[in-house]
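Hi P.,

Sorry for the delay on this. The queue was packed all week, but I finally got your sequence through. Input first:
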Amino acid sequence: MSATTSKTLALEEFLKLPETKPASEYINGEIIQKPMPKGKHSRLQLKLCNSINDVAENQQIAYAFPELRCSFGTRSIVPDVAVFQWSRIPFDADGEAPNDFLLCPDWTIEILSPDQSSNKVIGNILYCLKYGCQLGWLIDPSDRSILVFSPNQQPELLQSSDRLSSLREIDLNLSVEQIFSWLKMTES
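Then the structure:
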């Protein structure tokens, strides 16, 4: 995460501020701007959202949102992908997704950018798990690995042909190498 402001605000004050591009997060009383997503990051984010939604949306099992602000506890974070079980999406009276998600995702996915602190990103994943999130992934394109977090368990470092866990209800069968194969967009 790149920029940090030194002025301490309350979460309610932060939520009244205009959105920034790239998004800013509110962590431990500080505003921290995320780095601008680049090509590999954007490609993985889109492919993950599409893959999850292809198997989960039509059956109303879950939905993967890219760059969705989630405000809960004392933080307001913007995971690269926030997956919510369908029954937990706070639809409005018209059956539409609301603008404000005041709850943690069921599954949080972060894609590490080259200039991003892995510990700050892991901190957000752990925070989500503390508030009821069932699964967290930290995808590191530089070393082609994915760190998987589950509540009350040691993180698991997965690589190459290792199969990835998803939410129990989502029939998503992916390996680490499949995810990173999405980065290749042309035949060689």
